[in-house]
Every structure is written in structure tokens, then in C-alpha cells.
Amino acid sequence: MTINIQYVHMLTSEAMNAYVTEKLNKLNQKYDWIINAEVHFEIEHNAKENGKICKIELSAPGPRLFATSSENTFENAVKKTLKDLEVQLKKRKQTFVKH
Quick one: pLDDT at residue 99? Predict the structure, then answer.
């Protein structure tokens, strides 16, 4: 799986790169048919509490999977986004026909 991480209007973080890569690799071990992951981090400056946004788009057989979340930290945003994606991946896996 190829992972592409982008930071929109903010500085890059090696710690966040390592954290997201580790989490996506764990997800890829469960669902080895994931081809590509696009990760975008943003900061919403007008937000009072939750302003750290994480968007993840996965390429897999069939339509692309997408989830986004806005939390108080990037780590929490990544966790919530990956949880949403895992629900979508479970549904997608059920549609595969075994012969």
C-alpha cells in the first residue's frame, strides 16, 4: 500500500507521519487489498474546540472509500477517521464473493 500524506497550510510533522503510517499499516494487514491511502491534515482556524481535521481516502477495488473528522488533536482525528473507514471496509469485504 502506498501512503501519501499532505499538510494543508501547516508545517509537516515527522511524528504524525510515523503515527499515521503505523495505523494505516495495521489496517492494511487486516485488509490486504487496499491499494493506496491519501491523508490530508488541516487546521480550521475559526473553530472554538475541534479544529484539527483529518481526511483519509482509500483506493481499493470498487469505489473509493473516504472519511473525515474534526477533533481537538490530530491523533484523535486520525483514530476517529480510521474507525469510520474500518466500518466501510467491513461492508466492502462482505460484498466480495468467494468461489
Answer: 58
Q: What is the dihedral of CA 71, 74, 76, 81, to 10 degrees?
A: 80
43 φ, ψ to 5°? Answer: -120, 125
Q: Which three cell numbers stand for residue 30?
A: 487486516
8 DSSP 8-state letter: S
Domain architecture of the chain: domains with CATH: 2-72 (3.30.160.100)
Give the three-class secondary structure for 13.
Answer: coil
Task: State the burial class of residue 41 (Cβ atoms within 10 Å of its Cβ: 0-12, 13-18, 19+).
Answer: buried
Residues of the chain with confidence (pLDDT) below 50: none
Q: Are 28 and 52 in contact (CB under 8 A)?
A: no
| Residue 20: all three cell numbers together | 499515521
Q: Is 91 helix (H, G, I), strand (E, B) or coil?
A: helix
